[in-house]
Amino acid sequence: MEALAQVAALLADNTRAAFCSALLDGRAWTATELARHAGVAPSTASEHLTRLVDGGLLVEHRQGRHRYVSLAGPEVAELLESMTAFAGPGPRPPTLRAASVSEAMARGRTCYDHLAGQLGIALKTGLLELGVLTADLAVTEPGLVWLKELGFEPSKRQVSRACLDWTERVPHVAGAGGAHLCSVFLDRGWVRRIGTSRAVVLTPLGEHGWRDLGLLG
To answer: Does residue 89 surpass a pLDDT of 90?
Structure first.
């Protein structure tokens, strides 16, 4: 229980929560970038980041004089996504721009290294209909063959697992398989990032690609 309380305390601060939310894009950010994102002084950001690293939620990468941080792993991303879903919808976005960003995130986004939002749910539906996944989102034997044809190489990480989607309130597909598909779609230009946020969109090329794979009817 003490460990649970420590994690809860780390995320109870608005600035630290904002840092973790930004890092759900799966990329490493500098302390300066996160400070700007959260609207705090660099010294304040440094203190919060040290606490998050010490608490095991973030990991630090040093490159020259720059300090980069990222989420400690996919399990942290899934924890954050599930907690956000449990917390429910936040207040109405205060500006038109903020509302547009929120709507784009709901349509499609990355959740650390896999797809989420309406796009992530559409991917899950396609994988279920193809028989790649079972109803509880476990990968089938034919599904593993299908993934390998797309270059997937099994590792110690679980191939497929459910991750509760905070906007759709149903699970999307996480795990090594979900991460591989997200990477393939981005590399092929089937999915494109929107600006600097986590929001992504399925491109016209991606629509054709998904249909060729049987993911779209």
So the answer is: no
Residue 200 parent element (H or E): strand 200-202
d(CA 27, CA 25): 6
What's the CA gap between 73 and 95, in Å, rounded? 33
Q: What whole-number distance in Å separates Cα of residue 147 and Cα of residue 49?
A: 37
Q: Mean per-residue pLDDT for 114-130?
A: 96
Give pLDDT tens digits for 137-175.
999 999 999 999 999 999 999 999 999 888 888 999 999
Q: Which of 82, 86, 77, 81 is nearest to 58 (CA)?
A: 77
What token pair was written down for 163? 């991750």
**pTM (2 decimals)?**
0.74
Burial, 185: exposed, middle or buried (Cβ in 10 Å; 0-12, 13-18, 19+)?
A: buried
CA dist 80 and 125 (Å) reads: 23
Q: Give the position of tokens 């709901």.
A: 106
Strands, E assignment, the chain: 29-30, 58-63, 66-71, 109-111, 114-116, 161-164, 171-174, 191-193, 200-202
